[in-house]
Amino acid sequence: xxxxxxxxxxxxxxxxxxxxxxxxxxxxxxxxxxxxxxxxxxxxxxxxxxxxxxxxxxxxxxxxxxxxxxxxxxxxxxxxxxxxxxxxxxxxxxxxxxxxxxxxxxxxxxxxxxxxxxxxxxxxxxxxxxxxxxxxxxxxxxxxxxxxxxx
Length: 151
Description:
This protein is an alpha+beta fold. The chain is built from six helices and four strands. It is globular, with a radius of gyration of 21 Å.
């Protein structure tokens, strides 16, 4: 007790103890998620575009919005990001004009700062038809944001 009072009296900030799991979670985010915003955007767009071009069987461009600013980290799993994505094709009649072909909710995992793996993609039509799927894939606060987009 006297030792703690002595340390505090020298102006040291109180020791902050971190839960061991919080340390592990933080390290998994650092190791897997790109930490430079430009790199994050570049990799995420690349991997979403590749995944969605395979689904739609055509050249597409992708716009996305994070539904949660920070990744979700559970235990030692890869960090997950929740995204609303819009998929466009180029209008062949009007050069440079994009045509929205679909949109939906996506869950991705960041892997080794090199790529994102798409874990789930639910198109808006399916979400409207079966809204119960939202809570099966996405955390409740993210699900609430998705439901707002279905109206």
